[in-house]
Amino acid sequence: MQGARTDDMGVTVRDAVETDLAGVADIYRHYVENTVATFDYVVPSHTAWLAKYRTIREANRPFVVATLSAESDQHIVGYAYLGTFRAMPAYDRSTEDSIYVRPGLGGRGVGSALMAGLLDRADPENVRQIVAVIAATGGEGSVALHSRFGFTEVGRLRSIGHKADQWIDCVYMQKDLWEPSS
Prior knowledge:
By secondary structure, the chain is α+β, with helices and mostly antiparallel strands. It has a single domain, classed as Aminopeptidase. 26% of the residues lie in helices and 32% in strands. It has an eight-stranded mixed beta sheet, sandwiched between helices. Helix 3 (110-121) links the parallel strand 5 (94-101) and strand 6. The longest helix has 14 residues, at 21-34. It is globular, with a radius of gyration of 16 Å.
């Protein structure tokens, strides 16, 4: 387990543990119920979060949480992980990132700290490609975040998801961990 690292904004990123999943679920619940950032319609159960967490950790992939130094270390203000991109064996070294920040805390460096923590922990022996699938409606901040960390837009699927009585495009962005940063 890698240690916590606090950035200049007072955001601490550390490896998630099972007891963090209630905070993770609370953040995600908002996005399921109030936004098109996720195409989930139903809030995942604690059991589903536990299974996801264990699958990610068993694959030796990072799952991190963020806290603010001004708040209790137990108050999760964001989370990120590298999950499965596709379930077929040929995609074993390709991952899909997920990054969510507690509502109202955007612009405080939480997303950047989470992305840095995720990339610091991504093992190039285990991960070659990281793909971001971003809902274009309201996803401008996520696109900007990924761009700052070297992701490039590789495509857009038009009207691919339907939620909140609207058709939503998805922007695909990608980062190759085997290519040197420019």
